[in-house]
UniProtKB/TrEMBL annotation:
Keyword Nuclease: no
Subcellular location as annotated: Secreted
Name this protein carries in UniProt: S-protein homolog
One Pfam entry name: Self-incomp_S1
GO cellular-component term (any): extracellular region
Keyword Signal part of the UniProt annotation: yes
Amino acid sequence: MSVSVKSFFLLFLLVLVQPSTSISFGPDARVTVIVENELQGGQDLLMHCVSADNDLGVKLIHPNTSYHWKFHINVFGKTLYHCSFQWAFVLHKFVIYETSRDHSLCHICSWVVKEDGPCLVFDEKSDCYTWNSLEERYIPFLF
Ligand SMILES: *[C@@H]1O[C@H](CO)[C@@H](O)[C@H](O)[C@H]1NC(C)=O
């Protein structure tokens, strides 16, 4: 083999053994979810998100600030994060991430929480959803 054929072969081998994790949106994709508190009147937001294998715990999000977390999804599988949002004695529930709904929309999924529901924010627009359910809570800060 000539030198150039050898080096071509070597390069080919190197490409072959590259870990697939360098592909950012392959079957195993990394997702970041960002949730910002945009409630009116400077209200604090309490958020509690859980998936089948992860419980983020209760997070306190101050006005105009955000909380984010990262996880891996398999786009052929099913990743679901259910969240409860609480302020002013009312608990609001929303599925903040669902592979089938979101994997084609975002892998940095940036949400702003407003009174009427959460909005998924893109470069130039936002998609607002309504709450999945509401529940009166007479004992504040208990999920
Ligand atoms: C949050 O941002 C809004 C819009 O920019 C502003 O009107 C409001 O005063 C801010 N609230 C706080 C508590 O900083």
